[in-house]
Amino acid sequence: MKSNNKLIGTGILTAIAASLCCITPVLALIAGTSGIAASFSWLEPFRPYLIALTILVIAFAWYQKLKPVQEIDCNCDPEEKVKFAQSKTFLGIVTLIAFIMLAFPYYSSLFYQDQVKSETIVFDQSNIQRIEIAINGMTCDGCAEHIDHEVSQLTGVVNSTSSYEDGNAVVEYDMAQLDENQIKETINSTGYTVIEIIKK
Q1: In a domain, 73, yes or no
Q2: Residues 111, 29, 27, CA angle at the centre, nearest 5°?
Q3: Within 13 A of 56's CA, how many CA atoms are on the CB side?
Q4: Is the domain of 139 the same as that of 60?
Q5: If 0-12 CB within 10 Å is exposed, 13-18 middle and 19+ buried, where does residue 77 land?
Q6: Higher confidence at residue 175 or residue 124?
Q7: Could you tell me if 142 and 22 are in contact, meaning their C-beta atoms sit under 8 angstroms apart?
Q8: pTM for this one?
Q9: What is the mean pLDDT of residues 6-26?
């Protein structure tokens, strides 16, 4: 029974580790400490292995739980009640939590729903500059959404669109209110790294 509890704990830990690189930006947003957003991006290359390990551990725990028990003829006490932590219900809950954690990168962008600013801002079109910024360290949509969220908070930003697949952000801003160094500093402060800025 103890080994089954260890399997369950291992399954949860590997599921969390597999998605930690995408959970951290959301935690950074909630905590208001954007500098930790990229702290666990180094785990991204190990994600497929952690996912496989999680699935194997959970599958083995289910195998252990469902395999037939050999009956031994003895004058033992009737079966004692199974503790909740050793029940199929508990294993089912753990399995559900593990798969929710594994799928986190696919729904993490929901935490960054567009926040419409209530005031209308007028920009002089002749002052609008469009730049493409190459960024290192993004591993999922949550990372891109985190960068967009932070850049959009800057006064003078017209639009910000980041892509983790392309490893970049395209930002339009008013040169009278903002410069590219401020945008670069904001992105770097999230823990991701600006590699290059190209004016469009």
Answers
A1: no
A2: 85
A3: 7
A4: no
A5: exposed
A6: 175
A7: yes
A8: 0.63
A9: 72
Task: Tell me how far apart the alpha carbons of residues 164 and 85 are, in angstroms, rounded to a whole number.
Answer: 39
Total tally of structural domains belonging to the chain: 2
**145 within some domain:** yes
Task: Please give the share of the chain, as a percent, with pLDDT higher than 70.
Answer: 73
On whether both 126 and 31 belong to a single domain, the answer is no
Instruction: Look at strands 128-136 and 193-199 and give their pairing.
Output: antiparallel
For the segment 144-189, what is each residue's pLDDT rounded down to a tens digit? 888 998 899 899 999 999 998 999 999 999 999 999 999 999 999 8
**Contact by Cβ (8 Å): 174, 158:** yes
User: Which segment of 80-84, 137-141, 171-175 scores lowest on mean pLDDT?
Assistant: 80-84
Range of the domain at 145: 116-199
What is the CA angle 111-115-116, rounded to 5?
Answer: 160
Using DSSP, state whether 97 is helix, strand or coil.
helix
156, 153, 155, 158: which is closest to 187 by C-alpha?
153
Residue 74, classified by CB atoms within 10 Å of its CB into exposed (0-12), middle (13-18) or buried (19+), is exposed
Q: Would you state the pLDDT for residue 118?
A: 45
| CA gap 104, 161 in Å, rounded | 21
- Confidence at residue 135, expressed as pLDDT on a 0 to 100 scale: 94
- Could you tell me the maximum CA-CA distance found in the chain, to the nearest angstrom? 91
Q: Is there a domain that residue 171 lies in?
A: yes
Please tell me whether residues 11 and 98 are part of one structural domain.
yes
User: Is the same domain home to 90 and 147?
Assistant: no
